[in-house]
Design a protein that fits this description.
- With 290 residues, the chain is mostly helical.
- 77% of the residues lie in helices and 1% in strands.
- It is built from 12 helices and 2 strands.
- The protein has a two-stranded antiparallel sheet.
- α2 runs antiparallel to α3, α6 crosses α7 and α10 runs parallel beside α12.
- The longest helix is centred in the last third of the chain and has 37 residues.
- The protein is globular, with a radius of gyration of 20 Å.
- The N and C termini lie far apart (58 Å).
């Protein structure tokens, strides 16, 4: 259990970001590129600066700035230009991957010692990443559930037309979802790099499907609306445990993908049944009042 907790914490961070986007009726396929690029930026700019302490801080700033810009561009493409989320984020992922290869040259670079120490550190025998993931989840849940911004955010996700009619600037919240998601991907990527200590340019490739599966298993509809962020974190823990179980049986990586795909299909199927039952109930009510 303790061995998989760091990876569960990273998946939880990435899945929280995916949940924010899916709540807005979108989907973010730029997860692999951002998870990989953030670690590469930190490694490259830390090595290129003479001051070790200051270089890490500056490298972290560059990584999160790149994430914010990537999220902003994706958000603008989706909300302003009306590009389909799947198209906008596939394009962004390709751009991020190109930057990744350009910066790294396609070869792994060692992560700064301070980040590796933090990522592999423990408090009371529990990885520090677990505490960080819980703290980040609490912050995100508070913002989404207990603030005016969060209530408007959920209103836009549930029905953007109704939100616009109520005077809410829907585009602002859709853009915020992509920016916030990219920042969470970057955090997960940097910490994953710290865990691996020699992050590869492809380290984010295994986080796209699990992040969507955790979101769906957590009860967030792929068609947008209110999301259950706490359940997303629990689902991330479950999926990581499931992955460990599959690995211990000696099964291939394909079996893991089958489980993840099945989770998404089950989630969509449950939503479809609920939606059909809701439509039937509304139809019966209209007939009774007619």
């Amino acid at each position: 259990m303790s061995g998989m907790l760091p990876f569960a914490a990273i998946l939880a961070l990435v899945s929280l970001g995916q949940t924010l986007v899916i709540q807005q009726g979108g989907i973010d396929l730029s997860v692999p590129g951002m998870v990989s690029l953030s670690a590469v930026i930190v490694c490259y700019f830390s090595e290129s600066q003479p001051n070790a302490e200051g270089s890490v801080v500056l490298a972290l700033f560059y990584a999160f700035a790149a994430a914010a810009v990537a999220g902003l561009i994706s958000g603008l493409l989706v909300s302003k230009v009306r590009v389909a989320p799947i198209v906008a984020t596939i394009g962004m992922n390709a751009l991020l991957y190109g930057m990744n290869v350009k910066i790294s040259g396609g070869t792994p670079v060692s992560v700064p010692g301070s980040i590796a120490a933090f990522a592999n550190g423990k408090i009371f025998g529990i990885t520090q990443l677990a505490y960080l993931a819980v703290a980040m989840a609490i912050v995100v849940i508070f913002v989404v559930k207990a603030t005016t911004f969060g209530r408007n955010f959920e209103a836009v996700g549930a029905n953007s037309r109704a939100a616009r009619a109520a005077g809410i600037v829907a585009d602002r919240y859709q853009i915020a979802a992509y920016v916030g998601a990219s920042l969470l991907y970057a955090a997960g990527g940097i910490l994953l790099g710290g865990l691996m200590q020699l992050p590869s340019p492809q380290q984010g490739d295994n986080y796209l499907m699990p992040s969507i599966a955790a979101t769906v298993l957590g009860g967030t509809s792929l068609f947008g609306g209110k999301g259950n962020l706490a359940a997303t974190v629990i689902a991330a823990l479950f999926l990581t445990q499931l992955q460990q179980l599959v690995l211990t049986t000696g099964a291939s990586i394909g079996v893991q993908y089958l489980f993840q795909g099945a989770a998404i299909l089950v989630g969509v199927g449950i939503y479809g049944l609920n939606f059909r039952n809701l439509r039937r109930a509304i139809s019966l009510r209209n007939r009774s009042t007619a």
